[in-house]
Every structure is written in C-alpha cells, then in structure tokens.
C-alpha cells in the first residue's frame, strides 16, 4: 500500500537533504553535464566531482586548459555549498595550478566546507589526477534568497 506523505526539508537527515539538493541542482546544471562531469559523492558541506580531459579541453601546450580545471573545481564548490537547502552562489574563487592535467586524465575535485557563518562560507577544493594534486581552489560563497526544496514528497 502506498501512502503519500509530505516531509519538510527539516525532516530529512543532513545526508538525505544534501542528496536531494544535489539532485535538484543537477537537473538544471547544463554546464557541468555538458563538460561530461559526474557527481561522485555528496554530503553536507562536501562534494566530489570528476571529469575526463577530452581533446577539446587541451590548450596549445597540449595540457588541460586551466579554465576547465577551474570549472571542475567551481562545480564541486557549488555542489558543496548548496548542500544545506539554501541557494548559494560564488562570491569569489581563486585557484593555484600545481601540475598540469593531461589529455585522458580523470580529474577529481574534492570540495569541503571550511567555514559557514551567516550568509558567507569558505570552501577548499583539491583537484587530483590519479595520486597527484594538480590544483588547489578556494571559494567564498554567499547565500541568496530561496531554497532547493520547498517541500519534499515521498512514498511511505
């Protein structure tokens, strides 16, 4: 027997809330999907995203264009800071490139929340290729009006 119950976001565990927010955000994220990114893991204040460096992502040096590495880090940052059912945007982002990414590399961006207070947050993202860290990103976030899940319907 299916009974329809309505849960508010407050009734979800933090992990379930993070997943529901990520699912809602992913539906609208044409940029990340268009670049072949995958959302590997999502937890409150954390996200792991991956992307394969394709031929159209290498620059004249034949290494991964820094803009694509930044975009992967920025996407992981976005999913991490939007995991609390608040609409959040980037206020600032900075990246340091350590090693080049190469054609065919599977880049993995791991984002974690450092600080979240009021409307502001700070997140660090490490981008790796295999066992090597290739870039470190720090993003500052800002909460804007709205939420990802005004109501959540489930079947009990």
Q: How would you describe the overall organization of this protein?
A:
This protein is of the alpha+beta class and 156 residues long. Helix content is 23%, strand content 43%. The chain is built from three helices and eight strands. The chain has helices spanning 14-28, 30-34, 66-81, and strands spanning 4-7, 38-43, 46-52, 87-97, 106-117, 120-129, 132-144, 152-155. The strands form two sheets. The chain has a six-stranded antiparallel beta sheet. A hairpin with a 2-residue loop joins strand 2 (38-43) and strand 3. The longest helix has 16 residues, at 66-81. The termini are close together. 31% of the residues are buried. Residues 1-5 and 152-156 have low confidence and may be disordered.
What's the overall geometry? elongated
Radius of gyration: 17 Å
β-strand percent reads 35-45%
Number of strands: 8
List the helices and strands and how they pair.
Layout (H helix, E strand, L loop, with lengths): L3 E4 L6 H15 L1 H5 L3 E6 L2 E7 L13 H16 L5 E11 L8 E12 L2 E10 L2 E13 L7 E4 L1
Antiparallel strand pairs: 1-8, 2-3, 3-5, 4-7, 5-6, 6-7
Short note summarizing the structure:
Helices cover 23% and strands 43% of the residues. By secondary structure, it is of the alpha+beta class. β2 and β3 (46-52) form a beta hairpin.
Name its key features.
23% helix; 6-stranded antiparallel beta sheet; 156 residues; disordered C terminus; alpha+beta; elongated; two-stranded antiparallel ribbon; disordered N terminus; 3 helices
């Amino acid at each position: 027997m299916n009974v329809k119950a309505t849960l508010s976001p407050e009734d979800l565990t933090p992990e379930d809330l993070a997943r529901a927010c990520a699912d809602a955000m992913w539906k609208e994220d044409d940029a990340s999907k268009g670049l072949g990114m995958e959302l590997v893991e999502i937890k409150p204040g954390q996200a792991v995203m991956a992307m394969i460096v394709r031929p159209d992502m290498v620059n004249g040096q034949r290494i991964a264009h820094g803009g694509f590495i930044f975009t992967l880090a920025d996407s992981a940052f976005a999913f991490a800071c939007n995991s609390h059912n608040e609409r959040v945007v980037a206020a600032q982002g900075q990246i340091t490139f350590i090693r080049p990414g190469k054609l065919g590399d599977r880049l993995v961006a791991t984002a974690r929340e450092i600080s979240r207070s009021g409307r502001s947050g700070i997140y660090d993202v490490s981008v790796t290729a295999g066992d090597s860290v290739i870039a470190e990103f720090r993003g500052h976030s800002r909460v804007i009006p709205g939420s990802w899940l005004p109501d959540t319907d489930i079947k009990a």
